[in-house]
Specification:
Belongs to the alpha-carbonic anhydrase family. By secondary structure, the protein is of the alpha+beta class. It folds into two domains: 285 residues, Carbonic Anhydrase II (Roll); 34 residues. It is 24% helix and 26% strand. The protein is built from seven helices and 15 strands. Strands 2, 3, 4, 5, 6, 7, 10, 11, 12, 13, 14 and 15 form a twelve-stranded mixed beta sheet that branches. Strand 8 and strand 9 form a beta hairpin. The radius of gyration is 22 Å and the shape is globular. It starts with a helix and ends with a helix. It binds 2-acetamido-2-deoxy-beta-D-glucopyranose (2 copies). One 2-acetamido-2-deoxy-beta-D-glucopyranose binds next to loops.
């Protein structure tokens, strides 16, 4: 009997170790190159992140701005946890986002990807024309036609992520981030959690919320499910160098190693098309002001309007002949 119990517990221990062996980005048996062995979707054809190659992005004037509801300041307590891979904030279901096709997505959580290893301040997951920004924000949502995130995560149209970049040059402190960054000290160890109060997600996002890239992809961490509609904002958030350094050096993973470079390599685009609701002009400066970008898209909307008008005229003339 004793032997049986020992064998059984050994078996359970083994099963647990196998199941509990944490995936990583670059170390151990389950680094990102080996994710597909344990999580088959990670080897799929529609994976994220990707490089957003602006020259090849398709301008789609029918993509309207996202309607973000409940993103402004909210009272209450918002749990913020170190999950061993990143810092994650739980979001209230009063926060939601409506895409231009009318689909409503309910906010679930928000987390970050950053760099920091070998003094490189560069850790975004998506890149734009090959350039990796300092940090990437992911606000994860699920389709409101499903009852909960737990159900939606397995559905083909289940999820949507609103992503934004954080950049740093020699910016001063961004006070909208001070509260969040000071709370990192409370969750140094993996599994620890703390509460944020008076959360204002809109303040933590870029000023220009109108212009975005969009494509169909996956979760960027295991299980890499290919059911994510991505909205990557064109504008970025600005943080000071010391704020970025705090984000890169405050948290430890399950092995008490500093969480750094928690980003996945860009994945092949394959046959997907990336769309944007703004036009790309080759010598447009990266940090072009949002006002000017709005102005440019107004012009392109007008061009589109005239083009449609002319087409209708032509069609009418044809039908009269
Ligand atoms: C945005 O959504 C809110 C509530 O979901 C709605 O009241 C509002 O009219 C919408 N705004 C636009 C511009 O569609
Ligand atoms: C990490 O460090 C803490 C505090 O020193 C300790 O309690 C914990 O056991 C350590 N964990 C590992 C996996 O070494």
């Amino acid at each position: 009997m004793r032997t049986l119990v020992t064998l059984l517990s050994l078996f359970l221990l083994g099963a647990h170790a196998q199941h509990g062996s944490e995936w990583t980005y670059s170390e151990g048996a389950l680094d990102e190159a080996h994710w597909p062995q344990s999580y088959p979707a990670c080897g799929g054809q529609r994976q994220s992140p990707i490089n957003l190659q602006r020259r090849k992005v398709q301008y789609n004037p029918s993509l309207k701005a996202l309607n973000l509801t409940g993103y402004e300041v909210q009272d209450g307590k918002f749990p913020m946890i170190n999950n061993g891979h990143t810092v994650q904030i739980s979001l209230p279901s009063t926060m939601h986002m409506t895409a231009s096709d009318g689909t409503v997505y309910i906010a679930q959580q928000m987390h970050f990807h950053w760099g920091g290893a070998s003094s490189e301040i560069s850790g975004s997951e998506h890149t734009v024309d090959g350039i990796r920004q300092a940090v990437e924000i992911h606000v994860v949502h699920y389709n409101s036609k499903y009852e909960s995130y737990d159900i939606a995560q397995y559905e083909p149209d289940g999820l949507a992520v609103l992503a934004a970049f954080i950049e740093t040059k020699n910016y001063a402190e961004n006070t909208y981030y001070s509260n969040f960054i000071s709370h990192l000290a409370n969750i140094k160890y993996a599994g620890q959690s703390t509460d944020l109060t008076d959360l204002d997600i809109q303040d933590m996002l870029p000023e220009d919320l109108h212009h975005y890239y969009s494509y169909q992809g996956s979760l960027t961490t295991p299980p890499c499910t290919e059911n994510v509609r991505w909205f990557v904002l064109a504008d970025s958030v600005k943080l000071s160098k010391s704020q970025i350094l705090k984000l890169e050096n405050s948290l430890l993973d399950h092995k008490n190693k500093t969480i750094q470079n928690d980003y996945r390599k860009t994945q092949p685009l394959n046959h997907r098309v990336v769309e944007a609701n703004f036009m790309y002009f080759p010598n447009q400066h990266y940090a072009l002001g949002s006002e000017f970008r709005s102005y440019l898209s107004k012009i392109s909307e007008n061009i589109e309007y005239v083009r449609k008008f002319v087409e209708q005229k032509k069609a009418r003339r044809k039908s009269q002949c």
